[in-house]
Amino acid sequence: MTDQSRLEYLISAANAGDKAAQEKFFEKLSVRFSKLITLELRKHPVLKSGINIDKRSHEVCQYAIKEVKKLCPFGTPNFSLIPIMNVLHNILDTVITNLLADLAKKGNLEAENQLFSILRKRLMERITMRRGSDAK
Description:
This protein is mostly helical and about 140 residues long. It has six helices and no strands.
């Protein structure tokens, strides 16, 4: 059985109400997402000195999984990997933005530059999406 088919089986069982499968799914999701959080936090060198990245990664992951459970419960139309990943990434983006904003408010110019870089990127993505939807 491949990893993909195991995951599909796990999701099917979880959607059918198997509590053990649901916990196993969120356990696997936590492991993978925690690694992503750590990598993303480390992309911002200014955060390395201001926070304990491993501890913050764990806290963010726990919060994100709790939000996913609330917003995308098993057995509902909202349960799908795409909305789950969107929730997780939105939470991560918000955490990074807030951490940088806090440092920028304290006068950290590097944090301010990174924050504006993120905001500029988001604005350009919105403009591109809007132009794409206007062309239709």
